[in-house]
Amino acid sequence: MLYVKSLREQVYKYLRDRIHVGKLGPGSPINISDLSQKLGISKTPLRDALIQLETEGFVKIIPRRGVEVNTLSLDDIRNAYQIVGALEGSVLYEIFDEIKPHHIKKMKRLNADMVDAIANDEFGELYEMNITFHDIFVKMTGNKALQQICLPIKQRLYEFHNRCFVKEWELINCDHHDQIIEMIEKGHKNKAAALMRDVHWGYDVNEKFIKIFYSHE
Fold first, then answer.
1. Torsion of CA 31, 160, 45, 32, to 10 degrees
2. Could you give the percent of the chain with pLDDT greater than 90?
3. Of the candidates 121, 133, 107, which has an alpha carbon nearest to the alpha carbon of residue 166?
């Protein structure tokens, strides 16, 4: 039973958590009637939560057939990388001159902690720190719509329990972070934005590891 102030938000979180831990894997059906009965709620907040999840790409609602959890194809991943790379690259360029020493210090500390997390196989912590690292500059833009677009895409890419933890790839990503920090310190705006867009979020650059991470062979 769910007794909360915002029932839609709670149902949304419940479904997201089940997707994250693999209780609802790619292709899994979601029966609205059964789920509403199980949770002891009406179908309205459940439908509202599913509409939000569909907007974010986690599920698809099929008229007269029901709802199922989306499967990520390589084309989906390529598109996601292109979108996030373009957005984060443009944000980094836009706010570049607003990045202060305390921002850089936080970036360095987070990236060092990420390297430690990789060494200790702490993937969950690594994911959260990676989101925080990027949020340092993403949240400096006043474009709230852009922020709302980026995060769900990244969550869809990474929030699954059965992903293969690829240490080599994660260390390369941390190296990208170090390079971006160095470019920021040297005032290389164009190079930093290009590295973010074309390398860090470059699908072709990361394709080998992407196929391992998502088990596409």
1. 0
2. 49
3. 121
In a domain, 41, yes or no: yes
Report the amino acid identity of residue 198: D
What average pLDDT does range 181-198 have in this prediction?
98
**What is the reported pTM?**
0.82
Q: Does residue 146 fall inside a structural domain?
A: yes
pLDDT of residue 5: 56
CATH of the domain at 128: 1.20.120
Positive or negative, the CA dihedral 68, 74, 77, 79 is negative
DSSP structural state of residue 70: P
Domain boundary among 48, 69, 90: 69
Coil, helix or strand at residue 59 = strand
Q: What is the pLDDT of residues 139-162, one digit of tens each?
A: 999 888 898 889 888 888 876 555
Note whether residue 118 is domain-resident: yes
Q: Report the 10 Å Cβ neighbour count for 97.
A: 9
